[in-house]
Write a sequence for this structure.
């Protein structure tokens, strides 16, 4: 249920209403906009007399929310959220490019790539230290050593770190990570999502390989309901019957998620296609479609990459793409 207050309501009257609703056992999510304040009621609202609440002189309207996701629902939070990572803002018109290798392989590699993508305009650096691999024989990342190498690259460039967490037990190692990424395979690891609700840092939540948008939003709800509202959604392609690309990039998810939720939406064209030459056109399409950012794999030597070299751009290719992305942003902004 949401309660929309009239414009210009005094803080005293607003707090009186909130206290009364809380006394009914409800959690209240407050969204203060420029022209209205929205109170999102979370919990068992069956005991709330909608007619009584709507009759109050400070209330403009009362509506039931039919969707199971509440905290990440745009009805609860009409204005788009801005997630801040240091000085970098993401969402509500603030666009960000996140770039780096699929996997951290060495200090030279990650520092070289980090410097290159920063020069091209990237504001955050991605790099995998813990890697979920389909085969148990594939390179699974440098783990704790990889995190230390990412920190070295951050010191060299100033770029905040985005890297994937796979296991709750590894969470203490991520205290100095700027953005925690939850990969497609862990999108419905609910114990992990609940734990992230107690973490005071942004979470990049990737859509599962065969999950619906509602399921993605419900996973975001797990994090937010546990206390952490700094969530970004990531469309990274879903598995279909297409036999030429790694996945199928669902670009319609971008405007649909913006319709349903106030959370920023990032697009990953690298994992969506699995083919380097397809990454630029899909990245441009995602930009034109209203994405709040892109996360792109860049490697200084893709042929010899230990992970996903086939979908990685070279630094000069990323720089060329970044120029085109900026041109599109100027048109649609």
């Amino acid at each position: 249920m949401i309660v929309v207050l009239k414009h210009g309501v005094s803080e005293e009257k607003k707090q009186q209403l909130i206290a009364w609703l809380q006394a009914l056992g409800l959690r209240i999510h407050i969204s203060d906009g420029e022209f209205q304040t929205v109170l999102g009621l979370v919990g068992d609202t069956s005991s709330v007399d909608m007619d009584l609440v709507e009759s109050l002189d400070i209330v403009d309207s009362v509506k039931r929310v039919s969707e199971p996701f509440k905290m990440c629902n745009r009805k609860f939070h009409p204005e788009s959220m801005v997630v801040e990572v240091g000085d970098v803002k993401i969402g509500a018109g603030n666009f960000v490019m996140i770039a780096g290798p699929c996997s951290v392989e060495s200090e030279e590699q990650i520092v070289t790539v980090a410097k290159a993508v920063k020069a091209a305009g990237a504001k955050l650096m991605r790099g995998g230290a813990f890697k979920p691999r389909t085969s148990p024989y594939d390179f699974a990342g440098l783990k704790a050593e990889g995190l230390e190498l990412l920190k070295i690259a951050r010191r060299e460039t100033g770029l905040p770190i985005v890297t994937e967490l796979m296991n709750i037990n590894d969470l203490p190692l991520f205290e100095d990570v700027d953005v925690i990424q939850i990969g497609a395979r862990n999108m419905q690891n609910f114990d992990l999502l609940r734990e992230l609700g107690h973490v005071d840092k942004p979470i990049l939540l990737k859509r599962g390989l065969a999950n619906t948008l509602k399921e993605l939003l419900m996973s975001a709800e797990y994090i937010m309901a546990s206390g952490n509202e700094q969530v970004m959604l990531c469309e990274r392609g879903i598995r279909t019957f297409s036999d030429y690309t790694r996945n199928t990039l669902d670009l319609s998810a971008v405007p649909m998620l913006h319709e349903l939720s106030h959370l920023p939406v990032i697009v990953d064209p690298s994992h969506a296609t699995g083919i380097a030459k397809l990454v630029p056109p899909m990245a441009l399409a995602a930009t034109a479609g209203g994405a709040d950012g892109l996360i792109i794999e860049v490697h200084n030597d893709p042929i010899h990459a230990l992970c996903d070299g086939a979908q990685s751009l070279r630094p000069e290719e990323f720089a060329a793409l970044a120029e085109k992305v900026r041109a599109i942003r100027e048109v649609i902004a």
Q: What stands out?
A: The first helix runs from residue 11 to 23. The radius of gyration is 21 Å. The mean pLDDT is 95.
